[in-house]
Amino acid sequence: MVFEKIKHLVSQADIAKLSKQLGYVRERNFAMGLYRLNLATDLADFLQRGHFDWCHSSQTLIFALARLYKLDITHELQDALTLNDERRKLANAYIYIDTNFKHTSEPIHVLSVAQGYRYIGLKPIVDELCFKSLQERLEIIGKVVKLHFEQTKTLPIFGEITGYKACFCGEAYSFDTHGELSDKEIFEKVATLRI
């Protein structure tokens, strides 16, 4: 990978000289870009974290380094941008947990503080969901739901779990506690998309 090669070449370079070659007035500004470059696991991660130091953004910095080392990073950069666009589409995806809760005497502030128990964020598996069909995404989410229910049958304050609702890309999909789609209409919708 070109990005890894750039990281390696930068780690071997004279930082003061490299800083000047890239147009930096202060080496300290370049140091922050290098720090973010070293933190990044791949090019998509580097671009997603973002960097701006009045001389370069993350994208222009990687272009400038590639040009300096006479490397072509355009294809890898396009793939990283495409991946980050897909991640952005799924960034706010979550699963809402339905329970048999009936409000009786719990103070509202206690319920609002505990509301976080009713959500499962999908950020840890967002890369697994990227570039998948709706059917594949729903199967992955079904496994998450099934595992969650096996580990957690009831929620504090809210009681017994009765189902789940996965929300992503502007749609909501209902699951039972076994990780199966519970709405027949949605199941038919997914089946037609598969054809």
Give a written overview of the molecule.
Helices cover 54% and strands 13% of the residues. It is α+β, with helices and mostly antiparallel strands. Strands 1, 2, 3, 4 and 5 form a five-stranded antiparallel β-sheet that branches. A hairpin with a 2-residue loop joins strand 4 and strand 5. It is elongated and about 70 Å long. The two termini are 36 Å apart.
What's this, in brief?
The protein contains ten helices and five strands; from the N terminus they run ααααααβαβααβββα.
The geometry reads as: elongated
What share of residues is helical?
40-55%
Q: How many DSSP helices?
A: 10
Using DSSP, what is the number of strands?
5
The topology string of helices and strands comes to HHHHHHEHEHHEEEH
Protein structure class: alpha+beta
Distance between the termini: 36 Å
State the major sheet.
Answer: 5 strands, antiparallel
- Gyration radius from CA atoms, angstroms: 23 Å
**What number is the mean pLDDT?**
89
> Beta-sheet strand percentage?
5-15%
List low-confidence stretches: none
Annotation keywords:
195 residues, alpha+beta, 54% helix
Annotate the secondary structure layout:
Elements lengths: L1 H11 L2 H7 L5 H13 L3 H7 L8 H11 L5 H16 L4 E6 L8 H7 L4 E3 L4 H4 L4 H18 L2 E2 L3 E10 L2 E5 L8 H11 L1
Antiparallel strand pairs: 1-2, 1-4, 3-4, 4-5
